[in-house]
Design a protein that fits this description.
two-stranded antiparallel ribbon, ATP-dependent DNA helicase, hydrolase, 105 residues, ATP-binding, mainly alpha, nucleotide-binding, 43% helix
């Protein structure tokens, strides 16, 4: 069914019923299968979920991007571009986030 959805195919009524029969709340998912794969509707909610999990880890390392700017003529321009870049979402920067949380395993 996920393959069908990914290809933009319209699901039958029965396929929709099967899919919807497996919907559960966040709380249920956490208690029943905390390590299971979760299908989440939007990237924003995915990012929120991932950050909540990673931020709860004790042994984490934060990695910040080391950006190089070409075409800036002075420090003021570079500061402006830096501030603007660091506020951008990863989907606007080729999937490269400014901050990356790393956790072993």
């Amino acid at each position: 069914m996920l393959f069908l959805i990914g290809n933009g195919n319209i699901l039958t009524k029965e396929e929709i019923q099967v899919m919807e029969s497996r919907f559960i709340t966040k709380e249920e998912a956490q208690s029943v299968c905390s390590e299971g794969i979760k299908l989440i509707f939007t990237n924003a909610v995915v990012n929120e979920y991932n950050h909540s999990i990673l931020n709860n880890e004790e042994n984490k390392t934060m990695s910040l991007a080391s950006d190089v700017f070409v075409g800036c003529h002075n420090a003021e321009q570079e500061n402006f571009v830096t501030q603007k870049l660091h506020k951008m979402r990863a989907d606007n920067t080729g999937g490269l986030p400014y901050e990356l949380i790393l956790v072993l395993n």
